[in-house]
Amino acid sequence: MATYEGKVFTEEQEALVVKSWTVMKKNAAELGLKFFLKIFEIAPSAKKLFSFLRDSNVPLEQNTKLKPHAMSVFVMVTKFALLETIKEAVPDMWSDEMKNAWGEAYDRLVAAIKIEMKACSQAA
To answer: What is the pTM of this model?
Structure first.
């Protein structure tokens, strides 16, 4: 059982994350695209952040640049969109326990990124 900033990430939570990720990683490119579509559904203005989407009349699902981009940044996510995407990817496995496990894994990832960013900015 790992402890990070006072939170406990149990072996059961880790097992749920690993089990569901094993299923999802086989279709990571498609899930990455679905993830971004979910973000744009939640916050349509987020499309303005991507120059290749701003002036495009092509439907998002058919944009040739979005899918590769989505694949490359699938792990750099917003929590709600990530959890919703996972819920849709493994509906038979989805439970409160899995939601909590992925939420905790996400929180740990964000915390680790923040620590790394802070270290990099101090070193520069």
So the answer is: 0.56
